[in-house]
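Protein: Ferritin
Species: Morganella morganii
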Amino acid sequence: MLKIDMIQKLTQQMNDEFYSSNLYLQMSAWCRDNAYEGAAAFFREHAREEMAHMMRLFDYLDGTGSMPIIGKIDAPKSDFKSLKDVLERAYKHEQSITNSINELADFAITSKDYPTFNFLQWFLNEQHEEEKLFKTLVDRLLLAGTTGEGLFLVDKEMGNNTVAE
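Structure follows.
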């Protein structure tokens, strides 16, 4: 049985992952509206992945006899200025999620909740990959250029899901 403070922290993370899914879905919509079809597909798939992360936390809470509580989440921003802005915001968001996962893992280990710490290992590894992916996207866009052919190439690469492989 999880302690109440751990349940609250896991619930917050679950809802943060839910927000992440909505954020990437909104980014996908912006990309499609601005003719970045590859980026739109990329962010739509990423929204699905974030929902799977949410469900992983939901199932863990449920499996420990705790009731997952879906909280109210804010609507994500939709006022992006450019694909560069979208990618930079996504990268910053992933850094924020990494920080919260790190804090959660630290709390689990200092609370001697070893099963939860073990469960969180997957998220720690996943966040390393997420930050690497979005940093690579930002770097490639800056390298390729933020106009014309550079944007086209980055958009196409995102659609092919070949980034950071």
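Remarks: The helical segments are 4-33, 37-63, 83-110, 114-144, 148-160.
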